[in-house]
Specification:
Rossmann fold, seven-stranded parallel beta sheet, 9 helices, binds NADPH dihydro-nicotinamide-adenine-dinucleotide phosphate
């Protein structure tokens, strides 16, 4: 399925489907924030590749929702922490769609433990999945974006990468790493019409949030000035902004966090 050629120019944000003719991949698009991002980009006209690792049914469900709304999407299994699997996945994307315009690095996991209890396995799993995946996917995607003369990379970091968080030494290191990586890639790729930005969510109502014990959830809500967690769609709208409207923005972080972190 080769998509129609899109011009090597930025999409027109006033167009009802500004991403028509362009292809986007959302890693970890099968549920939570990723599935909202997939739906949001598809609603803007992009053909969306929904990546997942285990949730084939959930990923197929996201594709069905997108198609029912008149959009276009497909699924791609692949462990984004594994460079070989990512290589095979991007090979299939090239063959199937012929192009790639937008990469959203969203896949992530938690292995929360206080530092004293954190094992080396807890460390490596989180670093490889949450940070290594960003390198893996960018490494394979950038040549395809360069082919287009236009591209958008949007990395999902976290406020935890900006301020740290109890029990999350591995996660905060990975998310902070994403921010440094984002800035450097932004500097190197700007001349090629490729922007690289990060979205830093606060707490978001997904399975990741539901896995937090209720007494801890209550304590967290007390720390959020807006006194609620975000809806996944609120994060997806930030991603849409970088993909479609943020032409003169690169190397930036967009904080969508209810005020829990206000640094800049
Ligand atoms: P979920 O746990 O709801 O979903 C995680 C997604 O990542 C799933 O689609 C899962 O696929 C996929 N995934 C996990 N490991 C891999 C892998 N190795 N290869 C490919 N896909 C993988 O997460 P959220 O939606 O809550 O989080 C999404 C992103 O947002 C993460 O990067 C997270 O760190 C970040 N974030 C989340 C916050 C929150 O409060 N929820 C706050 C701040 C940031 P499958 O279904 O196949 O398992």
């Amino acid at each position: 399925m080769e998509t129609k050629r899109a011009p090597a120019t930025a999409p027109d944000p006033t167009h009802p489907k500004p991403l028509l003719g362009r292809v986007a991949i959302v890693t970890g698009g099968s549920r939570g924030i990723g599935s909202s991002i997939a739906r949001e980009l598809a609603a803007s006209g992009a053909t969306v590749v929904v990546n997942y690792i285990r949730g084939s049914e959930a990923a197929a469900g996201v594709v069905a929702q997108i198609e029912a709304a008149g959009g276009s999407a497909g699924t791609e299994a692949g462990d984004v922490s594994n460079y070989e699997q990512v290589g095979e996945m991007f090979g299939r994307i090239k063959e199937r769609y012929g192009r790639l315009d937008v990469l959203v690095n969203n896949a992530g996991i938690l292995r929360d433990r206080t530092y004293k209890k954190m094992s080396i396995t807890d460390w490596h799993e989180v670093i490889d999945t949450n940070l290594g995946s960003v390198m893996n996917c960018c490494h394979l995607a950038v040549p395809m974006l360069l082919d287009n003369g236009w591209g958008r990379i949007i990395n999902i970091s976290s406020f935890v990468g900006q301020m740290g968080n109890f029990g999350q030494a591995n996660y905060s290191a990975a998310k902070a790493g994403i921010l440094g990586f984002t800035k450097t890639l932004a500097i190197e790729l700007a001349r090629f019409n490729i922007t690289v930005n990060a979205v830093c969510p606060g707490f978001v109502e997904t399975e990741m949030w539901k896995s937090v014990p209720e007494n801890i959830q209550e304590k967290i809500l007390e720390r959020i000035p807006m006194h609620r967690v975000a809806k996944p769609e609120e994060i997806a709208r930030g991603v849409r902004f970088f993909a479609i409207e943020g032409d003169y923005m690169t190397g930036q972080s967009l904080n969508i966090n209810g005020g829990i972190y206000m640094g800049w």
